[in-house]
Amino acid sequence: MQAINSPSEIIVALEKHQYVADEEFATALFLLLKLQKPLLLEGPPGVGKTEIALALSQLLETKLIRLQCYEGLDINAAVYEWNYQKQLLGIKLQEGTNLSVEEKEHHIFSNEYLLKRPLLQSIMEEEQSPVLLIDELDRSDEEFEAFLLELLSVFQISIPELGTIKAKYKPFVILTSNRTRELSDALKRRCLYHWIDYPDLEKEMAIVKKRLPGIEQHLLEQVVAHVQAFRQRKLAKTPGVSETIDWAESLLALGYREVNAKAFEQTLGSVLKSVEDINQAKAEFIDTL
Amino acid sequence: MKQQAFQTRSIAESVVGFVQFARSHGLNVGIQETQDALRCAKEGLISNRDSFKYALKAIFCNSPEERKVYEKLFLLYWDTNPTDLQEIKNKTLVKGSFKKKNSASLVMLGRGKTEASEEEGKNVSGATETERLKRTDFSKLNETDSALLEDIARKMFKQMAIRLRRRMRESRSKGQINLRRTIRRSVGYGGEPIELFRRAQRPKKQRLIVLLDVSGSMDRYSYFLLRFICALRENFRQMEAFVFSTSLIRISKALQQNRVDFVLTAISEQADNWSSGTRIGECLHEFNDKYGKLLLNGSPVILILSDGLDTSDPELLSQEMIKLQRRAKRIIWLNPLKGMKGYAPEARGMKAALPSIDDFRFAHNLESLLELENILANA
Predict the structure, then answer these.
(1) Could you report the per-residue pLDDT of A171-203, keeping only the tens digit for each?
(2) Is residue B271 part of a domain?
(3) Which end of chain B is more exposed for a tag (fewer CB within 10 A), N or C?
(4) In Å, how far is A267's CA from the nearest CA of chain B?
(5) Min Cα separation B160/chain A (Å)
(6) Is the pTM of this model over 0.80?
(7) A7-76+117-195 under CATH 3.40.50.300, yes or no
């Protein structure tokens, strides 16, 4: 990996990994790399918040470690846990040996019996900084958010039996949120912030083209223009960029070269995900085809 | 008055100046942010105007709203010419005077204007007096009683919040055996599981959304109901609150400070239609439209406090109520008028909403509000 010295280099490099970023976003990513501060991404679903972590890890040629948040996520699932069954076996195996109690204890609380969960993994990397993706943080509880606050400021974790583990290489942290609840101000202040919105027509076409290089210009224009029109309507679920790609992909798979009435009806399910939306779109758009 | 870019002498000074400028205009930026901004300048980002703007945007802003403010501040700070300054001064002046007018228009929701006979009120307070006040309709309170009842209400709401929390804590002792912890502890006994640990039932955090009607007809009740909402917030940390009359305003942020007076000022700053007519249907529509996708996930409990005197189309109201019901765990509607003798839900709006309501209750006095505790605890 060559060193990155400006936001525009990030744009070029990301493009190689099939991710289209504008200058504003690239600047935020550049700061993430330079200042080593976590980056909080917010925006509607399906605009590539999660995708960027993958692209960034490919660009940096480093590991991507992902933590998916959910309600009730606790330390055991996020940081570490002892492998108790294995420890029990370990004790039984040691029964015949002459080891002292301290030695036995030392043995069963060693690395071998430690189950590393994503957060611990991310600070134990030996070679280079990994990319740590903490996905949909708004779904986790406040307690977990508070714990994260501590981790994000010092990048160290204390395990009572082992001692404190400090990151040799600080991970590049990307947090995403769908804004189902407001994150705490304290957490937000520790992060850089970027809001990803739905792309405009031109950018969305570029994105789809990147993903599906074989697509014909006419079909591409039709698909993207339709999705952009859908977004203007009041729908139960507004389609994101990933839905646009899905739709284009299904049209290609079925061998269509343009969006006609039949194609529209057959494939609408890959872009709109509720009956009301589909009926509304059919009523409104099918005559124009 | 904060200075602007043209008044500074070095780059570092102007960057620091910008941080102060942003702070004075409400962005939450501190020393850490200043340092980061200077580091950006050092990294060479300052050579390109857009890069520099975007970089500081990522550092300074925390929400889409702040990002909009930032755009203006950036222009104002870096692009102001000394010659234009006179004009800007005038603008801020106009803005300031406008604000004053806004807060002056705050109507005090049936709260007493004078507290002349307060002394008298204190003398008569006793157990029976408390009981009487608890049953008094909010709309029939005189000013002395009103102050007194406020005291009682504050105490009782506080107790209620504590009770609700305690109930959740005690119910943890049941549950499945937690194998991992049991084995973990048995290591000390040579592998014999002597102490049993149970998987604690995590108190399920029920999400609550409150919609309070602050229109003219509710004027006499809104103040107490707002206080009630503040008390609920202590228990339901994941609570969202809105007030509505002709339009909808989100007050969740203001409630976090937990002071009714703050909330009132915060609301009055935003609301120009406080204590005016009601358009419940349209407000619910706005709620579904703007916040539905964000807040109605995971079946929250929805609490609506309104008298149902609606001036908009009842058809719309009934439609929106159905939409709400589909995504909510249950809808509780508190109607202060229901406490009146001989009340029947005859108002057009109330009639339209009724089929979608799971629990229709009254809320005209303190006692009826406190009864809600049981419902919410089991919700």
Answers:
(1) 999 999 988 777 888 888 889 999 999 999 999
(2) yes
(3) N
(4) 24
(5) 23
(6) no
(7) yes
